[in-house]
Amino acid sequence: MKAYDLTELAVRNLRESGLRNSLTTVGISVGVASLVAMLSLGIGLQQLASRRLQKSGLFDTVVVMSRRDLRSFNREPQNSGPAPADSPMLDETARQRIERLPNVREAYPDIRFITELRYEDKPHLTMLAGLPFSAKNNDAFDGMQGKFFSSETAPEIILQKAFAEELLGKRPQPGADEVKVTELAKPLLGQELVMRYTERVENPGGPKRVPRAGESRLTASNQVNDLPQASYSVFLREQKLKIVGVSDLDPDSMRGAARARVFLPLKLAENLRVMQPTNLRDTSRGLGASPTYATVSVRVTSPKYVQSVEDAVRKMGFNTFSITDATRNLRQFFAVLDLFLGIFGSLALAVASIGIVNTLVMAILERRREIGIMKALGASDTDVKKLFFAEAGAMGVMGGALGVALGWVIGRVINLGTNLYLRRQNFPPEQIWAVPWWLVAGAIGFAILVSLVSGMYPAGRAARLDPVQALRYE
Amino acid sequence: MSSGSQSGQNGPIAVSTKQVCRHYRMGETLIRAVDGVSLELRPGEFVALLGSSGSGKSSLLNLIAGLDRPTSGSVIVRGGDLAALSREALAKYRLRTVGMVFQSFNLIPSMTLMENVELPMRFAEVERDQREGLARKALDRVGLSTRLRHRPAELSGGEQQRAALARALINRPQLLLADEPTGNLDSHTGTEIMELIREFNQALGMTVVMVTHERALAERYVKRMIFLADGKLVGG
Questions:
Q1: Nearest chain B Cα to A2, which residue?
Q2: Which helix (H) or strand (E) holds A156?
Q3: What is the tens place of the pLDDT at every residue in B72-111?
Q4: Are the CB atoms for A463 and A384 separated by under 8 Å?
Q5: Domain ranges of chain A
Q6: If you count Cβ atoms within 10 Å of the first and of the last residue's Cβ in chain A, which end, N or C, has fewer?
Q7: Which domains, ranges and CATH numbers included, belong to chain B?
Q8: A1 and B100 in contact by Cβ < 8 A?
Q9: How confident is the model at residue A163 (pLDDT cuts 50, 70, 90)?
Q10: CB B128 to CB A5 under 8 A?
Q11: Residue of A nearest to B93 (CA)
């Protein structure tokens, strides 16, 4: 029999005993719905976790250090490659070379320094860090009050919650409720504070440079026995900065051991040529006039390229650090979680499959005579078998589609409920539920498969029916 | 004997049974429904199988129809032994070579007349656009052109049997097997059905085997009568 005839006959047969078949279909859809709801939550949680981790820079970032600094997270690569004294310097040229490597999204220097910020004439000593403009898409700013830097060089800063509390003189009381970011942000957003910093200025053509009037002179070069390559001047300067954001979370979770509490645009920090602690060290080691970076953070286009980029950077003679193994463990954990959720979700589908068997066996008893007539008219065993399979499959398709819709709604409701709860607990809302297209297709496919397997026994039984006896049946 | 016009579209078909037996076991007792029947049917012949109920005439018809398999002996149609056919091949034989009508009409109640007549064409994989025209023509031929969309329950017995005839002939079989086709009809309607069967026999050159216990009816339409009793041939 042709496929469309089969479908047509199957659908009309299903319509004939509409109530019973509808109930069976609803049974399948409940099974599929529980499967979809369970898995959509599992997948949603996984996506939430990996989104968080990925955006935090844990898994798509390679931290590059110079071998000269002897700062390495793992000692093993020290034994291979050039000796620290022969290895290249991590300067602007090196940064650009790294940025040109395949699969590298960006490579930016880690600029951080401790300095004094004056707010309402009170000094506050803290660590500042340059933040690349790409951090705008960072998840860490999801709950931020205010907005991100208006441009790459805007004289603006984002405060970490703890520093905002310090500026306002609010110390977290033990036992008391946490101060909300919104409360902290209200008086601070748009305010200006003054940053004091030391600018590093190259000395053109020689060690001597007369400071401008009014500048404090803190020249690092020695007048008597100058080494020309290590010659630059350091000037104390002030820069007004506008507070544009107060962030709840730490956008800097991984980079660097020391945590910054104030962030300014990275380009701005570069342009200001802020003297960094490492500069002095490099100067005393006679490493040259151009500044070097303590570390360079390399963001790769996808976590799967971390290893290849790391290898390439190591070949250039730098030390690298990344966390890749953690994602693998995380994926494994979620695979197990999804498996368990899937098994629990499938239980309902298993129950529904018994319903299909029952419905179809009943249909054989009821349509015994009809099967006999069809056989007398020339239907083969295969035709009869296919017809019952088609009926089971049609119930699977309808149940599957209905179930996906139902599961989608259930998942949504759970998501809504969770977010309601999160909001009550003062957490930002989260998307803990996801229905990717493959889950939709997979769930419907699985429903059809289960239905067809359930239809196997009834279909076989119907096909084997003896036509003479079936025709005698009233 | 009126063998009818042996038109070319119905090739010569000969049915013969050789010592064919069909035995059932019912508990301890063995029922010999058909017990060593040998007979030959020539192409285009109109034959009646007569006998009292339980004489084995329907069982013999089922064996010829390929609905049942003999316990021993053989049923030869067009030179081939039905007993040697696989289940699938036997189904194809029923589909292509045999048309059947029954005492209780056996139309599928949930289908309209059109759908009932179309059903064998679905099994024969006739294209959908051809099917409707053929079904309409067949129903028109048995005088049911105004009842196409009716369900069997909405029709009289005679109309139902005419629809069943249309259905039996839709795949142009060479063998029409009728199991008590007038058994559920009054004599007037029965005569109408018999006229139709005779018409098909003569016009299409179709071999017809009819099971009946009404000897008078058989005598009016049939040239050869085969009598059965206790599964064996008697007289004839």
A1: B125
A2: strand A156-160
A3: 999 999 888 998 999 999 999 999 999 999 999 999 999 9
A4: yes
A5: 3-54+328-472, 60-323
A6: C
A7: 43-69+86-234 (3.40.50.300)
A8: no
A9: confident
A10: yes
A11: A378
